[in-house]
Every structure is written in structure tokens, then in C-alpha cells.
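thread from #wetlab-drylab

HS: before we spend reagent money on co-crystallization trials with copper (II) ion, can we at least see a predicted complex? here's what I'd submit
DV: go for it
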Amino acid sequence: MHPEHPRRTRRPALLTAGLAAVVVVALSGCSDVVQRGWMPGSSDAEITDQTARIVSLWRGSWIAALIVGLITWGLILWCVAAYRKRKSDNVLPVQLRYHVPLEVMYVILPIFMVGVLFYYTNRDVTAIQDTSAEANLHVQVIGKQWSWDFNYLDDDAYETGEHAQGVGDPGSLEDQVTLYLPVDERVEFTLDSRDVIHSFWIPSFLYKMDMIPGKTNTFQVTPTEEGTYLGKCAELCGEYHSSMLFNVKVVSREEYDEHIQDLKDKGQEGSLGLEYSRLQDLHSVTTEEEGDN
Ligand SMILES: [Cu+2]
């Protein structure tokens, strides 16, 4: 004897509405940190002109994923409860059934969900990667195992970092090279690498971009909040990758100009090219040694 069909009820619709309400209430009661989706940075101010957009995309994607997740988990639990084995069941239920509308639904619905996520991601990534605006400042960043060089192209000065290579030295931040940026000015970064693939990442800016040998990547951003931020390499690039760190100081225009003057006073005028490759040095050392033998 087959079990009777369970009574058709409005339970799934009610369940969905209830779960959505829980998500909304939970989020509205949350602190700023939670509303920012635990993203790095500050909840008092936007650190760049792009952080609000990125947080909004991140938060929207999580809410969408949670709603889909809750509906899915809810339906699974509902099926387990509604179609559980009853005492009077002593034969297997029908094992194969076709329900064309249901099958059409579960093809169309995921396509729709991916479409929505794609639309918003594409909209925001296009805006973030737009480099058509005129930048106030051009900075070339060069990644190298395991530090950074910054060429301030408009100001004809450079900063060069040196990696602390002591064994077991995790690399202390105070010793790291510092990138200065004037606040509220649009900076265009050009990213290059001398050796292997690195990734230029300032977590508080909520953005990173790969630095690929032989290929120059570009992006623009306007830091909008003065402060000191951490920067790091986000692409595993060898033994000391984890200590390939730098500081970022977003300062007033005056402070920035002072820093550029300091660099020039130290003799760091001009810019460092891609020719100073550690790999080339290693190569020439090896060749010399071979020549000695
Ligand atoms: Cu690296």
C-alpha cells in the first residue's frame, strides 16, 4: 500500500518567507562590522572610493547565498519529515517519477541565480577596473623576491625595499618599505614583476591585482581616508612570500611632497627599472663561478 500523498499545504512558501524574515532581522540588528561582512577596513569611513561598492557586492552575494542555502536546507528537512516512513508503510514507494515543470524549474532557476550574480559582479568589476579617468598620480610598483620598489613617476623619485632575510625572521613591519599616497587624489598603479608572479594587495582597499613578469597590469583608485595600512603579496612567490610586506601611508598633499623631497635628498631620484633582477644577479654569479672552475 502506498502512503497517501501528504496534504498540500502552504508550508514551503511560509518557510521561505520566515527564513527571509530571519535573515533580514538578523542583519538589521547587527553591528557595523557584521554589516560590512567582516571585511577589513573601517566602518566609520570608506577607505577608498571603491570600498563601499565592494562591500555591497560582497554583502549582497552572501545574502543571496544564505537565502538559497536556507531554502535548500529547509526543503531537505521538510522532505525528510513529510515523507518519512510511517508505521503502515511496508513496501517501497514508487522509485521513479517524472515531473516536467519541476525539472524545467531546476534548470531555469540556477541559470537565473548565476545570471544575477554575474550581472552584479560584472557591473562592479567593470567600474572598479575602469582606467579611463585622468589620474592625478602615477605609481609604478615592482614586485621582487621578496620586497617592493615604488617609482613615483610624476615626481621623479623612487623608494626601494629590502627583504630581511634572517633565518626564522618573520619580517617585522617597521622595517618594511612604505608607499606614500596623497589623500583624495586618484592614483594609477602600474604593476610589474622582476622575477615571478606576485600580487599587489592592500587588504583595507579591498582589492588586489597580480604582478606578472612581462605583463603590465594597471588599476586606479582614490584613497579617501588618511591613515596607515598594511600591504602584502597575495601570490605564493617562494620561500619568504609571507614576509613580503609593505606599509601604505595615506597622507595630506603637503606630507606627501615632503616625503618625495626626503627621497630625493637621499639620492633616490629617477626610477628603478626592471633590469635589476635578482634572478639575473644569481645567473651572473653562477656563470662567474662556472668560469672560475
Ligand atoms: Cu610575492
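DV: Residues 137-272 form a domain with the Immunoglobulin-like fold (CATH 2.60.40.420).
HS: ok that's useful, forwarding to the group
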